[in-house]
Design a protein that fits this description.
Number of domains: 2
Oligomer: single chain
Distance between the termini: 80 Å
Number of strands: 17
Radius of gyration: 24 Å
Order of helices and strands: HHEHEEHEEHEEEEHEHEEEHEEEEH
Number of helices: 9
Structural class: alpha+beta
Strand content: 15-25%
Length: 378
């Protein structure tokens, strides 16, 4: 009898909690409807209710994290036609921070990078439009446009009192993700700059390694991930695997069982155990952080430069019934040590602050690369 009574109380409490939660949700929806009705009747200006609803939906998603966002049918369609060459871009990877668009990193050899946009810049104005209050997708839409047209960006930069103004011409952004050369006076260090993790990065990267291993007697490698905004998880895993014989590379954890996975290295170190230095900065994000973090945890490389950006989450693009779409964070990355990258990033083994963003191989201004070369000769 006592067990039956306890069970009855348990199910009553569970049912009460469910009903209360459900009623509370319906109450909130009623309040939302009431707010909309009052805006419609009494707001000083006439409003577009469809636009207002889009903003409300996006507000829900943006309250979750900086990377979840709503795309209207028009914007969703535009995002899907990027590869057709109908629109031009500036060449920057962006995110949201405190309601303002933040530059994760400018992409090498693109209009934004050539104009002087830097990782960590805050874009406060696009043309005549203030960015405050706009969604990430709305900001992206404002920056895109026909190839050959220009856009004015107003930027706030840490350590600079006055806002900076840039006039940038839109172009088709085509990124060759891998460039490679031998560096140092003795030409005995292999330098590979990885600009992003796209579909062909692993094959380009491996081709560079094989070319070096075949023709050169190298002391080691410098892998340059500065201003690399990331890309495909599969590419991060494949390229990290080139330097490991075994062990975990990265794990993802989400609410669904299917989003909780671990990825391991296969046997075979493509550079045969040679020393590796990885260069990172505040513009190194996502897949770049997985690579640097995994090699650091396995003590397979020295990480040199500045703390990375701290984007440790996976987004999925979900089509919606109205023809729009949503970008939703579905899981987070964890390094082999179990640490999360989110909002923390990867801390370098050797902190070397960046003096100049001139990442050209022969540049004397590149103090981080020059420091890396000295490590091999010390």
């Amino acid at each position: 009898m006592k067990k039956i009574l306890i069970l009855s109380i348990f199910f009553f409490n569970l049912t009460y909690s469910f009903v209360f939660s459900k009623n509370n949700l319906y109450e909130k929806i009623d309040v939302f409807g009431e707010v909309l009705e009052n805006i419609k009747k009494d707001y000083v200006d006439k409003v577009d209710q469809a636009e207002m609803m889009d903003s409300a939906i996006n507000g829900v998603l943006q309250s979750l994290d900086p990377y979840s966002a709503y795309m209207s049918p028009e914007l969703f369609k535009e995002m899907q036609t990027d590869t057709k060459g109908e629109f031009g871009g500036l060449g920057i990877e962006i995110g949201m921070e405190a309601g303002v668009v933040k530059v994760i990193s400018p992409i090498d050899d693109t209009p934004a990078e050539k104009a002087g946009i830097k990782a960590g810049d805050f874009i406060v104005k696009i043309g005549k439009d203030q960015v405050q209050g706009k969604s990430l997708m709305e900001a992206v839409k404002l920056m895109r446009g026909p190839v050959g047209t220009s856009i004015d960006l107003t930027v706030r930069r840490k350590g600079v009192k006055k806002p900076l103004n840039f006039k940038i011409e839109r172009k088709i952004i085509e990124v060759q993700s891998v460039s490679a050369d031998v560096i140092s006076d003795d030409k005995n260090i292999g330098y590979i700059r990885l600009k992003s993790f796209n579909e062909n990065s692993d094959s380009q990267f491996l081709k560079s390694i094989k070319k070096f291993e075949k023709k050169q007697k190298l002391k080691g490698y410098v892998i340059d991930l500065r201003n690399n905004p990331g890309g495909l998880l599969t590419q991060a895993i494949n390229i990290t695997d080139f330097f490991l014989d075994d062990g975990e590379i990265v794990s993802t954890k989400g609410r669904k069982v299917s989003e909780t996975r671990k990825f391991f290295a296969r046997k075979g170190d493509e550079v045969k155990g040679k020393p590796v230095v990885v260069l990172i900065n505040n513009g190194s994000a996502s897949a770049a952080e997985i690579f640097a973090g995994a090699l650091k945890d396995h003590k397979r490389a020295i990480i040199l430069g500045e703390n990375s950006y701290g984007k440790g989450s996976v987004q999925s693009i979900i089509p919606l019934r109205n023809g729009g779409g949503m970008r939703l964070t579905i899981s987070k990355y964890y390094l082999p040590s179990g640490k999360s990258i989110s909002e923390v990033g990867v801390t370098p083994d050797i902190l070397v602050e960046q003096i100049d963003q001139d990442f050209k191989i022969k540049s004397e201004k590149d103090n981080q690369l020059n420091y890396a070369i000295k490590l091999f000769n010390s």
